[in-house]
Amino acid sequence: MTETLPPVGIDLFDVERLQLVEVEEPPLSSSDELARDRVWDTAVHANPTLFDGPVVACAGLERTGARILRLSWVRVTYRHYALRRVPGATALPSLFVNVVQPTDDGRVLAARMSPFTAAPGRWQLPGGSVEPPKDGEVLDESELAGQAARELAEELGIGVAAEALRLGAVTRGENSSVGLTYLAPALPEAAVRAAFAAAVADGRAQGREPELDDIALVRSPEELAGLAGPHADYLEPIIRRYTAGR
To answer: What does residue 14 show for φ and ψ, rounded to 5 degrees?
Structure first.
């Protein structure tokens, strides 16, 4: 039986399998298109690092069985999300992957976004927007796990095979954005910190500022609450879930 999941509050769904279906982007009126472009151009003027690259948006999320979700997706670019600031317009929810990186003593890593990013100072999990498949390829569970593994390597310097990541939860929160949360194998604290320091140093040596400027290892939602600055809305329920040993 198919059950459409209502977008209310911060939701966290247990999931073992995804059914991925590509659909067409809903039509946009010419007035909304012009307003979207004006908002986007203003945002780029304020932050020239913004890039209108291809991304995947979520067009629907339904439960089709026990711990099975059907996720309908659409090809858009980052410009699409400027519709959130257009009165009366509807923007599709964003879709992203992120990774829970535990340490072998039961803590979970939280990472802080750098000042130049779209969410300066925000604590979140390592991850990023889902990218559409290249021509001739498909967006499936293997590709999503591969994208999560790449984010972990790029942002934290931690190399892990996509096959070693386990999809543990799907979250839905601010702007109904949908997050696919993967669990990585546990590592010693020293290995995590050394990998992050090496990734930051390597990026700066190549002229790139890191997207993440700090990490913290927390063992409870109470410790998470002690991190100064904004927190991603999904972060507290994810930390609660994984530090509780679930």
So the answer is: -70, 140
